[in-house]
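README: folding subset

This subset contains proteins for which both the sequence and a predicted structure token string are available. Records are stored as plain text. Below is the entry for TIGR02001 family outer membrane protein (244 residues), shown exactly as it appears on disk.
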Amino acid sequence: MEIVKMLKKLLPAAIAASVLAGATATTVQAGEISANVALTSDYRFRGISQSDESIALQGGFDYAFDNGIYLGTWGSTVDFDSADGFDGSLELDYYVGWGMDVGENSAIDVGYLYYDYPGDDGDEGDYQELYGSFSFHDFTVGMAYSDDYYGETDTFFYYYADYSLGLGENFSLDFHVGYNDLDEDGGFLSNEEDSYTDYSVALSTSWLAVDWSLAYVGTTLDEKDVFDTDWADDTVVFTVSKSM
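--- output ---
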């Protein structure tokens, strides 16, 4: 599901608490399954490296019903060796949502997403989010809400905007900006920053039946803000992916 992939990578990508009003009342019809796999030079989530600035392998499966309801799972290798207690090597995400067109050129998407880090000591890395987004032509705005964000950092809100500019037949230039609002009484950020902005610009294309992306990714954070690492420094990320 594309919105979840955006949340996790660029997606991040994500999004606001919304009510699935009326969605579950629709009779579930036959749907289709899809899969995706990717190799990226640095797994950046909301601007911060999740793989210690190293290569990450990612992939997932989705099942979409004809009425707009979907569910799926997505995973990635991770590396948080510089953060005490977060020493697992795998992230697994599980989600369910509902999306539909609301006009000729607009669409909405809402859902629930659970982040699981099975190799961590304890479960303080695990958290859940409610998300929602609205797309109009090539522009998307969205929000996400967590009642207890990563590292048990309490309430979290994420607001973002994306714009995709087509460049000829096979290329696109994708812009993203997101605002991360953490609870002021907690934070995985080492100097207790309670907000920051992440951004990216990506050039994407399809060639030889594979998707290619070269992105410039950054944040407003300093090294001291993230465990005295450069995980949040501006960088270039190369990704190759395949959807099936």
